Amino acid sequence: HFKNNIAVHHRRNIHLTRSQQNPLNTMAANKEYRLLCLENPLLDIQAFGDEALLNKYGLKANDAILAEEKHLPLYEDLLNNYDAKLIAGGAAQNTARGAQYMLPSNSVVYLGGVGDDKYAAILRDAVKKAGLRVEYRVDPKEPTGRCGVVITGHNRSMCTELGAANHYDLEHLKSPEVWKLVENAEAYYVGGYHFTVSPPAIMELCKQAAEHNKPFILSLSAPFIPQFFKEPLDASAPYWDYVIGNETEAEAYADSHDLGTKDVKEIAKALANLPKVNEKRKRVAIITQGTEPTIVAVQGEDKVSEYPVQEIAKEEINDTNGAGDAFAGGFCAGILEGKSLEESVKMGQWLAKLSIKELGPSYPFPKQTY
Ligand code: 26A
């Protein structure tokens, strides 16, 4: 408790000195639940697999897809034959846990849909340990969503059956208790995977952000989002203050939008310069590229920045599942703390590195400090 107080005072001082540079620093440093996140809570069923397992289900080594009929036996297969572990997942929930990891207590709240079952209990337990507040829409009939994760080398193949997560709706978002949290929040983070679920809920957060000049942060999430959910994605684009993706997502975006380039820097620039509703904030596009430098483009600026990634010794790598989510979590923490773009990227890279050393999208406890 004592330590927390010191942290709050310390941050107040930082806020005073930097307030002219960054409008976010006008935010109250001791306010609760300043970051609100939305997406699909999932339980990861994760195992180290092999080529044969990928082939059996027609999975690519590094991909994220929605499960079809033919994929459904994968989950039992992983549990029975590959010693799979159950780990809290759901991309933006991982990001929310990550941001909370780096922020003062009670800074982050997360929304999504779960079932009324054992898997939801595991998720609640994990987020409680992480100090993340969740407001789940509980579906009485549908099971909690599952994501089969097959790790081969440094690749991860994810196959998701959304279940109850697919039933998140505007009604839950607009319910008085939840809406109060929306209005209270000072920044929003939405995982692009949610475009498969409730674009209206996403748009509602977009509009809140623009109307009150709060930052709206979007993750592209996976190549299939810009490929197959282009329409709802594009409807939200004018509201993005920060857009985060990796190189394959950037390329998929460029492809589906006929940008005519595969150059990650050019794609970042194009994303940064899309039309924008809230003209008080310049859009920032952030593209991660694994161990290659992180690319940052700012609306209206010619120069694209590159921030190198610190390599991890091979023997320290557990798996890369959740590395991108962790990056986004650290980056969001930086933005909320009013840090510079460069510092926020470094915070993201730092948290991604911690996550890569853990099993699945997890962070080490006892907590390490940045
Ligand atoms: C709609 N889909 C396909 C998904 C996901 C997802 N999270 C939300 N929606 N597919 C995979 N994930 C999550 O991504 C994390 C790693 O980045 C997995 O649950 C995993 O924890």
In short:
The chain is α/β, with parallel strands linked by helices.
Describe the protein's architecture and organization.
The chain is an alpha/beta fold. Helix content is 39%, strand content 22%. The chain is built from 14 helices and 14 strands. It has helices at residues 2-18, 51-56, 74-81, 91-102, 118-130, 170-174, 176-184, 199-211, 224-228, 230-236, 247-256, 264-272, 323-336, 341-357; strands at 35-38, 42-48, 63-66, 85-89, 108-115, 133-139, 145-152, 155-161, 187-191, 216-219, 242-246, 284-289, 292-298, 304-307. It has a nine-stranded mixed β-sheet, sandwiched between helices. It has a five-stranded mixed β-sheet with strand order 3-8-7-2-4. α8 runs parallel beside α10 and α13 packs antiparallel against α14 (341-357). The protein starts with a helix and ends in a 13-residue tail after the last helix. The relative contact order is 0.14. The model is unreliable at 1-21 (pLDDT under 50). The chain binds 6N-dimethyladenosine (26A). The site of 6N-dimethyladenosine (26A) has 22 residues, from β2, β3, α4, β8 and α13.
Ends apart, CA distance between termini: 19 Å
Radius of gyration: 19 Å
Strand order of the largest sheet: 6-5-1-9-10-11-12-13-14
Number of helices: 14
The helix/strand class is: alpha/beta
Along the chain, the helix and strand elements come as HEEHEHEHEHEEEHHEHEHHEHHEEEHH
Helix-strand blueprint:
Blueprint (H helix, E strand, L loop, with lengths): L1 H17 L16 E4 L3 E7 L2 H6 L6 E4 L7 H8 L3 E5 L1 H12 L5 E8 L2 H13 L2 E7 L5 E8 L2 E7 L8 H5 L1 H9 L2 E5 L7 H13 L4 E4 L4 H5 L1 H7 L5 E5 H10 L7 H9 L11 E6 L2 E7 L5 E4 L15 H14 L4 H17 L13
Helix pairs in contact: 4-13, 8-10, 13-14
The structure holds 6N-dimethyladenosine (26A).
6N-dimethyladenosine (26A) binds next to strand 2, strand 3, helix 4, strand 8 and helix 13.
